[in-house]
Amino acid sequence: MSSSVLYDAPGPKAQVRNRIYTVIGSLAVLGLIAFTLYRMNVTGQLEPEVWNIFNNAGVRANIRDGVLTTLKVFACAGVLSLLLGLLLAVARLSDHKAVRWFATGFIELFRAIPLLITIYALWVLFLTYKENLGAVGEDSAFWALVIGLSVYNGCVQAEVLRAGVNAVPRGQVEAAYALGLRKSQVMTMLLLPQAVRAMLPTMISQLVVTLKDTSLGYIITYGELLFAARTMANNIIVNGDNPITAVVIVVGAIYIAMCLALSSLASWIERRGRRTKKGVAVAPAGEPAVEMSEIEQALDKGTNNGV
């Protein structure tokens, strides 16, 4: 029987008890699914006419446009949040107090404010500005959503990058300074590359959050996927009722598929990162070893000795 500090292997009685709990839990889940399907059947949500609406070209076009709009917002907000996160992370690690305090205050402020309030406030601000100019445009909701997502997620990405930078062994940094490198060189050549590589799966996981948060655009009437689904569900009548359940199930499946695709990308990058970690190759007997550069020797020495 194997055990660890954090977990003791279950004994015979515990194994029987765990099997019983597993069977009871599985039956409860199956019962919940059966009850849900029963209620959907009673309310007519499983009728063929309800699901036949997705064979309509107009419905498919609305869903397609909603998906494309969602991906457009996600692409813009994802890129801007990464750039803003990089800028804020470097600013928060700055030696200048004013820069460091400003970055810290900015990050803490927009992490504390609910994202929905930020998006709505930006939307009202853009609408007010354009009304004063006499040119209210449809892009107000787009930029309010993009900037709101970029600011909030950029603050989170900044903290992720800062954690990655602080995780780099201190000996490497001191060895780089001993070689005469400036702080900008240490940051760009040593700290940021290692921080990005170490935290890349977490950064992509935060991008999944960014993708899901694009659904907040329906509050400001922006035509992303959730707003398109809500509009269709309210305007389509099947058997005297709105097919809300069917539309929610289909749109939810689309969101799940997009998020799983990004999560799979994060897992693939993490596995690839583990495989591509290279060390110094040992030269075969009788052959001279490949010489390392001066900076690599100093960094390795600083890491091993904890300089």
SSE layout and pairings?
Blueprint: H1 12-42, H2 48-51, H3 57-92, H4 97-112, H5 115-133, H6 139-166, H7 170-178, H8 183-213, H9 225-235, H10 244-275, H11 294-305
Would you write up a description of this structure?
This protein is mainly α and 307 residues long. The chain contains 11 helices and no strands. The two termini are 43 Å apart. The model is unreliable at 278-295 (pLDDT under 50).
Helix percent reads over 70%
Calculate the mean pLDDT score and round it. 82
Radius of gyration: 27 Å
Strand count: 0
Q: What series of H and E elements makes up the topology?
A: HHHHHHHHHHH
The residue ranges in which pLDDT falls below 50 over 5 or more consecutive positions are 278-295
Structural class based on helices, strands and sheet pairing: mainly alpha
General form: flat
Largest sheet: none
Distance between the termini: 43 Å
Beta-strand fraction estimate: under 5%
Task: Provide a count of the helices.
Answer: 11
